[in-house]
């Protein structure tokens, strides 16, 4: 069995990758705050990312185990809510932003290698036919063929305020204050705070628009992610208060088999077309041969 270390959380708590590795950025990573890569675990290859019509694609090998590598590229803790085929990889719920995810320390890297089964085990990801994918077997086929990471920054707690006693007013100040009151002048006050209703009401619309951008362009990819063998993968729990209800970054990577990506024009074909013969039945003219 493969032994690794990570962490998990539920009901608003986040998971912490306990023994993530510090690593330099790799090629083929997608993301700004968090570098996201897809690793073929059987070959050790980092799958190259193909850009096509504004989308990122990788080619998976049917039957191969794979992992979603996430790396914190910032100097502060980040939460990554990871989904595969529209399913939260930790809880198994139909994926949504508010759900549990993995918390990474600054510059930390962690490989999400399977569906979380407990604090110590995952069921390995592997590329398989769409009909055999975990999502389709649990009645959720619409988003098979896409990997997503919703990245959240952590809310910073402000330092406690230092309260200082007001200095005693100067006698002359008291006299000026009484004179102002006698003249009927209104007392000095700070500007009234502005209402936050506008930004709060706009949030659902903005969230819906971003979700529409996350929706897959094609609902019927031919390759999906299966529910594989159990592997040891330890996690611990932590708390994480998000700075915002909306992700600070959304990473989306679609995948399918190499042949299908070639057929869709995403990967250029390197095969040369056959050279046609204008006289396929023709035979070069000859003469009577010499006897032997």
Reconstruct the topology from this structure.
Blueprint: E1 4-5, E2 14-16, E3 21-22, E4 34-40, E5 50-52, E6 55-60, E7 66-72, E8 78-84, E9 87-88, E10 102-104, E11 108-112, E12 114-116, E13 121-129, H1 134-137, E14 146-153, H2 171-182, H3 197-214, E15 223-234, E16 236-238, E17 249-257, H4 258-263
Parallel strand pairs: 1-15, 2-10, 6-17
Antiparallel strand pairs: 2-16, 3-11, 4-7, 5-6, 7-11, 8-9, 8-10, 8-14, 12-13, 13-15, 14-17
Describe the structure.
Residues 182-196 have a biased composition (Low complexity). Keywords: Signal. Residues 159-170 have a biased composition (Pro residues). Residues 159-230, 268-292 are annotated as: Disordered. Residues 1-29 form the signal peptide. With 292 residues, the chain is α+β, with helices and mostly antiparallel strands. The protein has a domain at 4-156 and 214-263. The protein is built from four helices and 17 strands. Strands 2, 5, 6, 8, 9, 10, 14, 16 and 17 form a nine-stranded mixed β-sheet that branches. The chain has a four-stranded mixed β-sheet with strand order 1-15-13-12, with no helix packed on it. Strands 3-11-7-4 form a four-stranded antiparallel β-sheet, with no helix packed on it. The longest helix has 18 residues, at 197-214. It starts with a strand and ends in a 29-residue tail after the last helix. The model is unreliable at 1-13, 18-27 and 173-220 (pLDDT under 50).
């Amino acid at each position: 069995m493969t032994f690794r270390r990570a962490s998990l959380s539920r009901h608003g708590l986040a998971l912490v990758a306990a023994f993530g590795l510090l690593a330099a950025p790799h090629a083929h990573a997608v993301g700004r705050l968090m570098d996201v890569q897809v690793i073929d675990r059987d070959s050790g290859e980092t799958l190259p990312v193909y850009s096509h019509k504004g989308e990122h694609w990788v080619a998976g090998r049917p039957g191969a185990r794979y992992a979603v590598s996430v790396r914190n590229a910032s100097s502060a803790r980040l939460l990554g809510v990871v989904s595969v085929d529209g399913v939260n990889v930790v809880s198994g719920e139909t994926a949504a932003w508010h759900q549990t995810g993995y918390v990474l320390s600054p510059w930390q890297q962690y490989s999400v290698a399977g569906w979380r089964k407990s604090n110590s085990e995952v069921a390995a990801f592997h590329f398989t036919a769409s009909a055999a994918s975990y999502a389709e077997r649990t009645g959720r086929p619409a988003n098979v063929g896409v990997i997503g990471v919703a990245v959240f920054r952590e809310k910073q707690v402000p330092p406690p305020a230092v309260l200082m006693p007001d200095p005693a007013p100067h006698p002359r100040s008291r006299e000026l204050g009484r004179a102002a009151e006698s003249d009927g002048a209104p007392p000095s006050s700070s500007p009234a705070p502005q209402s936050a209703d506008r930004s709060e009401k706009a949030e659902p619309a903005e969230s819906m628009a971003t979700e529409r951008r996350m929706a897959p362009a094609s609902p019927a990819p031919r390759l999906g992610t299966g529910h594989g063998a159990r592997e040891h993968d330890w996690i611990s729990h932590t708390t994480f208060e998000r700075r915002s209800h909306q992700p600070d970054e959304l990473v989306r990577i679609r995948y399918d088999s190499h042949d299908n990506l070639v057929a869709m024009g995403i990967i250029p074909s390197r095969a040369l077309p056959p050279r046609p013969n204008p006289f396929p039945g023709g035979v070069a003219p000859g003469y009577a041969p010499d006897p032997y």
